[in-house]
Amino acid sequence: MAKRIEVSDLNIYYGNFLAVEGVNVSIEPRSITALIGPSGCGKSTFLRSINRMHEVLPGARVEGKVVMDGQDLYGSDVDPVDVRRQIGMVFQRPNPFPTMSIYDNVIAGNRLNNKRMKRAETDELVERSLRGANLWNEVKDRLDRPGSGLSGGQQQRLCIARAIAVEPDVLLMDEPCSALDPISTLAIEDLMTELKERFTIVIVTHNMQQAARVSEQTGFFNLNGVGQPGRLIEFNPTEKIFSNPDEKATEDYISGRFG
Amino acid sequence: MAKRIEVSDLNIYYGNFLAVEGVNVSIEPRSITALIGPSGCGKSTFLRSINRMHEVLPGARVEGKVVMDGQDLYGSDVDPVDVRRQIGMVFQRPNPFPTMSIYDNVIAGNRLNNKRMKRAETDELVERSLRGANLWNEVKDRLDRPGSGLSGGQQQRLCIARAIAVEPDVLLMDEPCSALDPISTLAIEDLMTELKERFTIVIVTHNMQQAARVSEQTGFFNLNGVGQPGRLIEFNPTEKIFSNPDEKATEDYISGRFG
Amino acid sequence: ACGASNESDDSNSGSDGGGDTQELSGELVGAGASSQQAAMEAWQAGFEGEYPGVRFSYDPAGSGAGREQFIAGSTAFAGSDAALDDEELAQAQERCAGGEVFELPNYISPIAVIFNLEGVDELDLSPATIAGIFTGAITSWDDPAIAADNPDATLPGTAITPVHRADDSGTTDNFTDYLFQAAGDVWTSEPDGEWPLPGGEAANQTSGMVEVVGSVDGAIGYADASRAGDLGVANVAVGESFAAPTPEAAAAVVENSPAVEGRGEYDFAIELNRLTESADEYPIVLVSYHLGCITYDDQETADNVAAFMGYVISEDGQAAAAENAGNAEISDALREQAQTAVDAITAG
Amino acid sequence: MTVTKAPTEPPAQQRTIRRPGDRIFAGAARGSGIFILLVLAGVAAFLISEAIPAFTASSEEIPGGEGLGDYVWPLIAGTLLGAVIALLVATPLAVGIALYVTYYAPRRIATALGYVIDLLAAIPSVVYGFWGLAVLAKQLVPFHEWLDDTLGFIPFFAGPASTTGRTMLTVGLVLAVMILPIISAIAREVFGQAPALHREAALALGATRWEMIRMAVLPYGKSGVIAGAMLGLGRALGETMAVAIILSGGAGATLNVISNSSPSTIASNIALRFPEATGLGVNTLIASGLVLFVITLAVNMLARWVVNRRADFSGAN
Amino acid sequence: MSTDTQAAPPAATPQEGPVRVQRKLPRYAPFGLFAGGVAVGAALSALTGFSVISTVVYGVVLGTVAVYAASRAVEGRRKATDRLVTSLVTTAFGIAMVPLVSLVWTVLDNGLARFDGQFFSNSMYRVVGEGGGAYHAVLGTLIITALATAISVPIGLMAAIYLVEYGTGRLKKAITFFVDVMTGIPSIVAGLFAFALFTLLFGNDFRAGVMGAVALSVLMIPVVVRSCEEVLKLVPNELREASYALGVPKWRTVMKVVLPTAVAGLGTGITLAVARVVGETAPLLITVGLITGTNLNPFDGRMATLPVFAYYQLTQPGVNEQAFLDRAWTAALLLIILVMALNVVARLISRFFAPTTGR
Ligand SMILES: Nc1ncnc2c1ncn2[C@@H]1O[C@H](COP(=O)(O)OP(=O)(O)OP(=O)(O)O)[C@@H](O)[C@H]1O
Ligand SMILES: Nc1ncnc2c1ncn2[C@@H]1O[C@H](COP(=O)(O)OP(=O)(O)OP(=O)(O)O)[C@@H](O)[C@H]1O
Ligand SMILES: [Mg+2]
Ligand SMILES: [Mg+2]
Ligand SMILES: O=P([O-])([O-])[O-]
């Protein structure tokens, strides 16, 4: 059920501030696409515009098209809720629901949408998702404890488990491993590699080795100066980006220092 | 004014849960000490106990000694406020004060001790600190805007600027670069190297290359199993840790995967 | 199932001696003067004993509100500390199917001049002295005017704190009416339910008045005599002597007061004789009326009103009220007079 | 969620289609808001229509015989005086209480202490009235005398001191006690919610407890405190029974808060006069209610103006 | 002021320790100083004519000043300010306890006399003088308050949700503003309004408990809106975003994420609103009046309520005054207990949902 996403001439605004300008890109299904670039260049902003999370901020809006398998996600007949159901997201800062137990956090996507599931089914789903996020062993004995009592990395993995539990077609991850130790990072990377068989994955990362390791395609964002909009400078197969990029800026950035 | 910190037999509790057990370590002045280990093993907990930030959580307490240049920081005549004034901290999640402007955020700590600084002095201090945190260029035109309108990485750098603005003797950093791009990371690392001439720095990181790059000493935390307390498994010069560690566990962890 | 344990139909009805409970039903709603609230409780209880089928309620919302609601037709009768004025009378007649209105002086209560003065239990006061105290002309208890009224008493030099009612009340209306008529030049303000002079200590309701007078040495006020409690009660000059506010003296002055001229056959509003010189009469009296129609639209209401008023003026009714409220019972003459009105009530 | 920067161009949400559930829910929420406006409009319409006869009547017909302005003016003075005393006393106290409960009291009993203060909200206003009359007023008589003796040169304490203590000052203090739980409960909620992240940031900079509160808690809770104060002010302005029972009112406008001749307040005056009022008397009382309505309006506009000046830095989110 | 407070003077550094431990007041010094201040205050008030209030006032002021001055001299400005605030904040709490204790004592002292079985099982039907009870008034208050709550909470909560989650532009501004204005409606005016409204709709002689409930709702709604709004604003946006990103529609997000997260605060707010109106006398006096018997139908006929019951018992007693006063105070006591019980229920509910906070 992986989906191809085509973005054309996308401008993204916060109120009157143009944060990201003129993005044109085609994201392949069943692949991992990495987005890299300096801080503040609009990676998160672009990522959030793909599943229409951008527009929940007051005054935030976009111009242009994001087409998923032929359908414009910003079309007037498209419900953003449906978009988000198919395009899941993991945020930069872990945000488990404080009112819910670890168990309920994992199945929040189903519960909140009032899906009825048998107890055995949900048990199975919770275990599968937590294992997928490499958290099962640490929390299996305290599934009924609040999710907010976990360490930062545990919380992040809980959020990943929550996102994959709804089995979206596309998974957007905003620096999902920035709070994780290498072992968990490895587990998440393995998970991504596994998931891409079925899903389309877009990941923002500052860790260029990670980008090099897991992704097929890499996009490099940059901005010319403060107050200027961010732009997608280069989008190419990861191998090419890291060995022989088209753009001077990309090369500078990558060779500047590795992760 | 760097300080030597000696920790002996430190047990750290959350209520009745023993999170970290029996830490004995001596942290050298004018050096960078890195703490590594899997998620949830108690690195953050240990770090927070050094400047008595741990005890602000309800039910949290410690047993044992943390001695700084001969003085027990947990002595009955020691005011935690004074401890924290000299041992600064940067948190895992950026936390600028949302009600203050960027400018005021930077000098928030200084304002406490010194109500009336000359405008020129503070201007100078703000610029120096922001430059130190590699944020000056991005925000110099909007110093009077709220700090919460920045990107994640920008916010983290703002917090670093705020912490170094008070010129503490010791600086504790909990994964300060996990939200930063390589360029900012590099800048922060350079800054640390510069600061260690005068200060003692302790940093928690998941990025082992970073630990290898910047630190003189490295401590490896681990835990035997879920619900078990975390322990300091090995503490040695960084070079030794990464080339020829004493402990099998350390070697496993490090060789498992790099950054 | 959900009733209070004292309300169950079989346990209580007719238990207190009435024997033959009567077959009336429906509702009887009244509203008005709060002054008669305590008496009304007794009347209601007695009436409900005799007529358990009637749902009775009396809303002590105030005389003005009572008259308005009666005129508007939302109640069957009203309680009022004052008789209807001409304009209201016309409106009331319209409300009563164009017919006659009854006004029965059913609640009579002496208003006592109460005081709190250490070492003084007995006090005689002439109208002019009372007025002087309340206008602020007399400020100390050893004032010659007070001494002149009480030649035998030893009066302290305590400052006087006169207290008046803060709310608009029938008590104030009657008290100022008395001062206006009896105190001569010393009191010039027109009688009014609202205290007519600016400033001074003001208290809400009779209970507030009693509380404040009771708490300040040297305070003086006016209140329903039954509520005076431990406070000193002044005797008021009547002619050459001084009268105490007893129920009997109050009933006597009402009986001997002339009727208001030019009213209907069943309108027994009276013009209180404040200037009485009879030593058996006490001139500061509050009369609270019951107002209703001689002709009601429906039979049920007419029957209920007639039954209620009949009970109120009955000896039982008056005695029950006097026991609970401490008011004066109406005289036989007044009762006979009222009975004519009760008998006349019909539907049409 | 702040309304600081209204987008100048049409927001993207315009194109957004909404699911039925969302439409219904949003409609219900919006409808509730509009309904409240309608209720208020209803109250205003009621007040205006009933007040018109009093505005058009000649001045002799108004109770007091001096016209509506002269009738209402002392009441306005009394209302504002009592409410201002209450607010000045209660707000700092309530903030103190809320801070005590959230950050100073021993943790184990802190919540319980919070409920204890809430008990003040449970006490009916009639009881406040009788307590004020029978207990507090008497206790405050010496205080009144002291104010008269030492601060008599200030117009507020010009005296002569009341011998019963049933003054505007006492009323203000009782009102302060009545609104205390309202302000402190809301302040407590918002102070307690100040993010740990920011509190820890302050502590880590070497802030003392108070400095932490000043940096991370008060700015965050400011809007809540103001909301609580406005609720409290509303209650103080509109309190009826307690004031009617305690205050020795009915005099002309004065700043003097310690004498026994105080102006009444609008709400208590209505309660005192309404049962016996007829005809134009009723209209006059309702006109005074309308005036109170307008006062509340004005006070709120003022408060809003003050608050909105630094809305950009609101702590929420 | 500015020069001598510059940083911590190094002169104040005692022993060897690296943490510039300024000299510290001994642990119990603040308490001792405070007590000393109180003692001096007592002496002072004894000089000027002893009274409890002046002793307390002088004592607290002097005690606070003593602590501040000592701390200022020994520990420096910042620490002294901290201690000063601690004193002030504790004093604030202490001050609030004074009227509370006095009030509760007054009510208990007077109200326990009739706190008996008869009071709870009997109405005032055909009761003259002694005896009787408030059964009818308790039920009346419960019914009318429940009705008012049923009207106000959904409307108020939804309006708060509108303001926090949906509101934009003028309508939001208007609602926020006018809700504040609404808090200033005097209770008696609310009663008059409800009276006029129902008279208009159902004619002159219509009286019912629902009139009172509507009057109380006018008073209650703004309290619900305002307190709920404040609490909802505190729910972090992160959580909303987390929910949206799971493909949860906004309304479900509000219902299942925002409201549960805020439930403790909502409970406090609603309890506050109920407490605000449950003791109201004036509007009920005008709308539902008073009867002596029990009426359980809020849509027909007058009803008895505890505040009105207490008010008339207090203000219009009969000859046997004590019996009336006892009933009045017991009714007041009952009202307080009622609100307390409500408080406990609200706490239990919120305890059930409330987030267990961690880092
Ligand atoms: N809520 C917001 N309101 C206004 N401007 C914003 C907001 N969030 C981000 N921005 C601005 O938009 C630009 C892009 O921010 P964004 O968060 O997308 O950067 P990023 O590439 O994700 O950076 P990082 O790597 O630090 O997370 C920045 O200039 C930032 O200041
Ligand atoms: N507030 C808290 N209350 C109770 N337990 C806690 C709390 N914070 C952390 N813990 C527990 O203490 C242990 C150590 O947590 P800590 O945050 O120190 O881990 P960490 O090494 O910093 O992990 P990470 O690399 O993911 O940040 C974990 O088991 C965690 O669940
Ligand atoms: Mg980002
Ligand atoms: Mg950590
Ligand atoms: O009976 P009153 O009208 O004076 O209260």
UniProtKB/TrEMBL annotation, chains A, B:
Keywords: ATP-binding, Nucleotide-binding, Translocase, Transport
Domain ABC transporter: 5-248
Molecular functions (GO terms): ATP binding; ATP hydrolysis activity; phosphate transmembrane transporter activity
Matches recorded under InterPro entries: AAA+_ATPase, ABC_transporter-like_ATP-bd, ABC_transporter-like_CS, P-loop_NTPase, PstB-like
UniProt GO cellular component terms: membrane
A GO BP annotation: phosphate ion transmembrane transport
SMART domains per record: AAA
CDD domains xrefs: ABC_PstB_phosphate_transporter
Signal peptide: none
Protein's recorded name: Phosphate ABC transporter ATP-binding protein, PhoT family (TC 3.A.1.7.1)
Organism in which the protein naturally occurs: Trujillonella endophytica
From TrEMBL, chain D:
Stretches that traverse the bilayer: 33-55, 75-101, 113-137, 169-191, 280-303
Membrane-protein topology: Multi-pass membrane protein
Domain ABC transmembrane type-1: 76-303
CDD domains: TM_PBP2
Pfam families associated with the record: BPD_transp_1
Keywords: Cell membrane, Membrane, Phosphate transport, Transmembrane, Transmembrane helix, Transport
Top-rank taxon: Bacteria
Cellular localisation: Cell membrane
One Gene Ontology molecular-function label: phosphate transmembrane transporter activity
GO cellular component: plasma membrane
GO annotation terms (biological process): phosphate ion transport
Function field: Part of the binding-protein-dependent transport system for phosphate; probably responsible for the translocation of the substrate across the membrane.
Family under the similarity heading: Belongs to the binding-protein-dependent transport system permease family. CysTW subfamily.
UniProt protein name: Phosphate transport system permease protein
Organism of origin: Trujillonella endophytica
UniProtKB/TrEMBL annotation, chain E:
Highest taxon in the source lineage: Bacteria
UniProt similarity note: Belongs to the binding-protein-dependent transport system permease family. CysTW subfamily.
Record-annotated ABC transmembrane type-1 domain positions: 138-346
Entry keywords, A to Z: Cell membrane, Membrane, Phosphate transport, Transmembrane, Transmembrane helix, Transport
GO terms, biological process: phosphate ion transmembrane transport
Subcellular location: Cell membrane
Keyword set includes Transmembrane helix: yes
Functional description taken from the UniProt entry: Part of the binding-protein-dependent transport system for phosphate; probably responsible for the translocation of the substrate across the membrane.
CDD domains: TM_PBP2
UniProt key word Transcription regulation: no
GO molecular function terms noted in the UniProt entry: phosphate transmembrane transporter activity
UniProt membrane topology term: Multi-pass membrane protein
Source organism: Trujillonella endophytica
One Pfam family hit: BPD_transp_1
Membrane-spanning intervals of the chain: 28-46, 52-71, 83-108, 134-163, 175-202, 208-225, 257-278, 328-349
Listed name of the protein: Phosphate transport system permease protein PstA
InterPro entries from the UniProt entry: MetI-like, MetI-like_sf, Phosphate_PstA, Phosphate_transprt_permease
Gene Ontology CC, one term: plasma membrane
